Q: What sequence folds into this?
């Protein structure tokens, strides 16, 4: 499933200011939830969506470093201006949603965005 | 024959945190190092770079790329690690609260470096600094 389809289905708000069209057409290959950066970096795999409550710029740096499909900042958690800048520079899709992390993941699973064994 | 990359990292500056790791990663991708190896190197380097930024007030990240391996050396003149064995325990951290609030300082950095690298050497002297050398073999895990 393409990132754009996921974003539309969950009514996610794209907050990355300057994102390439290509970045929205990547395949979402599962997901990971964590607010600990080292944990997310060590466990999330390339192509996954990262659901977190962290909205600071290092989230964009980590997402770029391990090649994630995108980041969903859940629960209307604030996203720093620096994050938007870093996300633009690194072409990382960062979304926000009022949904809780639990609800985001539940919806992703229902849509078929599941992790392969 | 090797390619050598050297980057300075500024302590406490989260604006540029991870940039040395990102540049090294891009170079390795360009050279054609297998993706899973690049991932391990990127994670190990990022963890070490963040430790320098969080704890040491600045340091250096150096990558030396050989045909069969990459050696990452991260050095600083920070406070040093009094007990390396303790610091290697998962969950052990001395990071300040503001760093923990960002999702760092969960005591996963050094264990991640150990997991990602094929060999790691940590030398540290309290009051003088820390020098970490990680070796990553280029052989893909899938081979």
A:
């Amino acid at each position: 499933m393409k990132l754009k389809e996921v974003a539309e289905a969950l009514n996610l708000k794209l907050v990355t200011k300057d994102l390439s069209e290509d970045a929205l057409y990547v395949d979402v290959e599962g997901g990971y939830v964590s607010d600990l950066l080292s944990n997310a970096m060590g466990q999330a795999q390339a192509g996954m969506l990262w659901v977190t409550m962290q909205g600071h710029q290092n989230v964009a740096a980590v997402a770029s470093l391990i090649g994630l499909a995108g980041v969903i900042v859940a629960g209307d958690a604030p996203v720093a201006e620096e994050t938007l800048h870093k996300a633009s520079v690194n072409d990382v899709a960062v979304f926000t949603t009022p949904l809780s992390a639990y609800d985001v993941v539940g919806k992703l699973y229902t849509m078929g965005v599941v992790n392969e064994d | 024959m090797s390619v050598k990359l050297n980057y300075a990292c500024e302590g406490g500056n989260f604006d540029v945190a991870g940039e040395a790791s990102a540049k090294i990663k891009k170079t390795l991708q360009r050279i054609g190092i297998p993706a899973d190896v690049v991932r391990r190197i990127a994670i190990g380097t990022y963890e070490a770079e963040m430790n320098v930024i969080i704890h040491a007030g600045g340091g250096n990240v150096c990558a030396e790329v050989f045909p069969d391996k990459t050696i990452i050396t991260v050095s600083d003149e920070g406070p040093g690690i009094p007990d390396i064995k303790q610091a290697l325990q998962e969950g052990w951290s001395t990071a300040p609260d503001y760093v923990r609030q960002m999702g760092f300082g969960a005591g996963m950095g050094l264990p991640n470096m150990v997991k990602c690298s094929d060999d790691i050497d940590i030398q540290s002297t309290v009051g003088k600094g820390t020098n970490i050398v990680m070796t990553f073999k280029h052989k893909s895990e899938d081979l």
Remarks:
- Chain A has a mean pLDDT of 96.
- Helices of chain A lie at 3-9, 21-24, 37-43, 57-65, 81-89, 101-110.
- The first helix of chain A runs from residue 3 to 9.
